[in-house]
């Protein structure tokens, strides 16, 4: 058995990344490197108001005084921030006035990724904001959404069209000074998505942003900001891919969610950045800060993530439970293979009374990868009757990978009930043989077992994406049996 | 259908099967009986292709193919089914989902289109009746928290779904109360036809009251030491395995 398992492991770890192609399109780029000039360049390109430029410059000044963090359980060579292109926009001959005028090359790129920018072709109720490198190239269903008052547009457009909202909310959950990468992002972010759901509105379709890194040597720094007014509801999904390149590329995003009284935001991520090759060459450094605030009573924020890509992942989607009776949830499946490293988890900060949080984390490690769960449950002094339940399960495929769990619990109110459960298991030979005996080859068996392991999280995904995500899990682990 | 000649197998350094000969024709039910440790379950596992065992000699022909050359999954897709003595738990995977995957893998192998949801459900409903299994159980994680009886019924349900040519029942009666035993046996009997065959591995004669075999073989110390009809099973029930052990051990001495 061990010998055959090695073979299978070998096969799995050589599975191909499906989205590694490059689109040949002329780009409008900033010169390499980072200085105040770079920031002025980006701001000018976007024709930004002066308050935005000032926000950026302040963040930059702060960033210069900061040190790159090194507490995460990941290793990577020091990033040379002067060796990155901070702005790269695919050139379109004419500024498209409607979706029909989008450069066919861009349209094809997204078609190839399975994202249709053609509203007529809509099969499912999903509106898409498509972001390539530093800019949003298209947003679908804007008109239909605006009929119910929902604003869904690129961040650049939001800065122009809705400056009051941006001024009020940008940086309100994740301040520029929060950490090294948020300061960097606040200085150089070039686009992203903005969603605003007015009071009492249940957003009639899923909103989604698809992030694509295409150009060489660039970094992608996007902002996502979602504001759900009282008694509103929105389900949002993001997906991401990048070409296969030998050099590492940096993706440092900031996502902020604000849920007012009785509002609910459901945020799902299917992260499939290029993970690097078998030897660990290339791949995306995914250093992302995501945080939501349940600002109003009875509000709810739910994060669901399926993380299969990136060479290094560093991200902790968190919820600040400020409103009384508010609810925070975090459902995560993180898969690492080959030499991938992931340090991911969540923070649940209980400030309000009777707040509840739930954490379900499923880590799957294969190859020589390392997969860490890092989570904090914090119950403040006044947060009486706070409840948390955390479950962290790790599944190991093979004997060269690692699974680590770093749960932190800080409770300052003695009415709190905090529960933590953790398991670590391996896929059993018996399980595989049982599947084999029913006619499944080992890869199919592993995919089935993995999907079973991750089911609780997968069930949280919107229907339209669940099937895709299941396939993605199978592909990421093709062949890795232990 | 299945022709086993001089089959020998070992696990690590221990020789367990020391030359098995067995010929099973379509429509037949063969029972393999024997005391604990005689090699009954090993035979079932070797036929299914479990890799813990090393085949050191002999041959097995299954429907004209060299069975020992086939991977476990191809053996299954060629129509060999093993009802496990200890069915394995797979958390988060329902029996329904498991069977859908298995059945469609088999259909793919046969060059058939996968069944769509409606067709699959129809087939499932039909087969559920055979073993009196209800849908709620099939929606739960496979074998997780199932009682002994539920696990075995679930095995027979899977067998019914996959319609194998040759089904090997490995101690399917162990851990069953009399009602569950009847249900399981009844399911098997309804699946018997002139085209398929069964190899029933059991320690006790009890199961054979319900699944009546055409032939009974006694396995002892890795060899079939006695073959006969169902009367042999009754004799064993009456006299225990000791008389056979004595016969064999004397012959060796």
Description:
- Chain A is of the alpha/beta class.
- Chain A has one domain.
- Chain A is built from twelve helices and 23 strands.
- Chain A has helices spanning 2-13, 36-45, 50-64, 104-112, 142-146, 155-161, 163-169, 180-188, 429-437, 442-453, 455-458, 463-476, and strands at residues 27-29, 88-90, 126-132, 135-139, 151-154, 191-197, 206-212, 222-228, 233-241, 248-251, 254-259, 264-271, 283-294, 300-307, 312-315, 318-321, 327-336, 341-350, 356-365, 370-379, 387-396, 402-411, 417-426.
- In chain A, strands 5, 6, 8, 10, 11, 13, 15, 16, 18, 20 and 22 form an eleven-stranded mixed β-sheet that branches.
- Chain A starts with a helix and ends in a 6-residue tail after the last helix.
- Chain B contains ten helices and twelve strands.
- In chain B, a hairpin with a 2-residue loop joins strand 4 (53-62) and strand 5 (65-66).
- Chain B is globular and about 60 Å long.
- The longest helix of chain B is centred in the middle third of the chain and has 15 residues, at 95-109.
- Chain B has a single domain (2-252), classed as 3-Layer(aba) Sandwich (Rossmann fold), CATH 3.40.50.
- A six-stranded mixed β-sheet of chain B has the order 6-9-10-3-11-12, sandwiched between helices. In chain B, strands 2-1-4-5 form a four-stranded antiparallel β-sheet.
- At the A-B interface, helix 9 and helix 10 of A face helix 2, strand 7 and helix 3 of B.
């Amino acid at each position: 058995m061990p010998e055959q398992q090695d073979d299978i492991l070998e096969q799995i770890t050589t599975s191909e990344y499906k989205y590694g192609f490059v689109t040949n399109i002329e780009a409008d780029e900033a010169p390499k490197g980072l200085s105040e000039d770079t920031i002025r360049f980006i701001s000018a390109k976007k024709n930004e108001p002066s308050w935005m430029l000032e926000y950026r410059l302040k963040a930059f000044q702060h960033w210069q005084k900061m040190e790159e963090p090194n507490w995460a359980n990941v290793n990577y060579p020091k990033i040379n921030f002067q060796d990155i292109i901070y702005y790269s926009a695919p050139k379109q001959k004419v500024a498209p006035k409607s979706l029909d005028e989008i450069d066919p090359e861009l349209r094809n790129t997204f078609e190839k990724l399975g994202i249709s920018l053609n509203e007529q072709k809509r099969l499912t109720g999903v509106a898409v904001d498509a972001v390539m490198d530093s800019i949003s190239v298209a947003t679908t269903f804007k008109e239909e959404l605006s009929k119910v008052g929902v604003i869904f547009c690129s961040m650049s457009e939001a800065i122009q069209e809705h400056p009051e909202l941006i001024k009020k909310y940008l940086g309100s959950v994740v301040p520029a000074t929060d950490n090294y990468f948020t300061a960097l992002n606040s200085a150089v972010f070039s686009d992203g998505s903005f969603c605003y759901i007015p009071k009492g509105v249940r957003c009639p379709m899923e909103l989604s942003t698809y992030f694509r890194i295409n150009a060489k040597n660039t970094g992608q720094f996007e902002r996502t900001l979602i504001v759900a007014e009282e008694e509103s509801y929105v389900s949002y999904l993001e997906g991401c891919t990048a070409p296969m390149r030998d050099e590492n590329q940096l993706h440092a995003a900031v996502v902020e969610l604000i849920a007012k009284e009785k509002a609910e935001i459901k945020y799902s991520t299917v992260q499939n950045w290029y993970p690097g090759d078998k030897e660990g060459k290339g791949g995306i450094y995914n250093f992302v800060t995501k945080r939501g605030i349940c600002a109003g009573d009875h509000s709810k924020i739910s994060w669901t993530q399926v993380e299969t890509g990136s060479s290094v992942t560093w991200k902790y989607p968190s919820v600040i439970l400020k409103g009384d009776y508010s609810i925070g949830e975090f459902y995560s499946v993180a898969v690492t293979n080959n030499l991938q490293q992931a340090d991911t988890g969540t923070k649940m900060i209980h400030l309000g009374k009777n707040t509840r949080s739930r954490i379900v984390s499923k880590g799957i490690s294969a190859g020589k990868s390392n997969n860490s769960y890092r989570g904090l449950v914090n119950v403040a002094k006044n947060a009486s009757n706070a409840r948390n339940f955390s479950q962290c399960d790790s599944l190991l495929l093979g004997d060269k990978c690692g699974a680590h769990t770093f749960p932190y619990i800080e409770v300052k109110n003695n009415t709190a009930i905090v529960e933590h459960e953790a398991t670590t298991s391996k896929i059993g030979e018996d399980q595989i043989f049982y599947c084999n005996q029913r006619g499944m080859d080992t890869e199919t068996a592993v995919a089935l077992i993995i999907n079973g392991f991750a089911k609780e999280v997968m069930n949280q995904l919107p229907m339209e994406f669940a099937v895709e995500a299941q396939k993605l899990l199978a592909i990421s682990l093709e062949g890795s049996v232990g | 259908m299945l022709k086993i000649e001089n089959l020998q197998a070992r696990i690590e350094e221990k020789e367990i099967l020391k030359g098995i000969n067995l010929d099973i024709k379509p429509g037949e039910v063969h029972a393999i009986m024997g005391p604990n440790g005689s090699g009954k379950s090993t035979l079932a596992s070797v036929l299914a292709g479990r890799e813990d065992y090393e085949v050191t000699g002999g041959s097995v022909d299954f429907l004209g193919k060299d069975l020992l050359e086939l991977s476990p999954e191809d053996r299954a897709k060629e129509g060999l089914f093993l009802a496990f003595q200890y069915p394995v738990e797979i958390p988060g995977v329902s029996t329904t989902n498991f069977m859908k995957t298995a059945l469609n893998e088999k259909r793919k192998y046969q060059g058939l289109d996968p069944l769509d949801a409606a067709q699959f459900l129809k087939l499932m409903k039909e087969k559920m009746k055979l073993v009196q299994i209800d849908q709620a159980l099939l929606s739960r994680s496979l074998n997780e928290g199932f009682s002994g009886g539920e696990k075995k019924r679930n095995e027979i349900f899977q067998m019914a779904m996959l319609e194998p040519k040759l089904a090997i029942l490995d101690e399917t009666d162990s851990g069953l109360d009399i009602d569950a035993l009847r249900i399981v046996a009844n399911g098997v009997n309804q699946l018997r036809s002139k085209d398929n065959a069964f190899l029933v591995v059991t320690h006790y004669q009890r199961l054979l009251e319900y699944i009546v075999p055409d032939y009974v073989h006694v396995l002892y110390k890795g060899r079939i030491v006695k073959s006969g009809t169902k009367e042999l099973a009754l004799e064993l029930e009456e006299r225990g395995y000791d008389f056979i052990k004595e016969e064999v051990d004397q012959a060796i001495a």
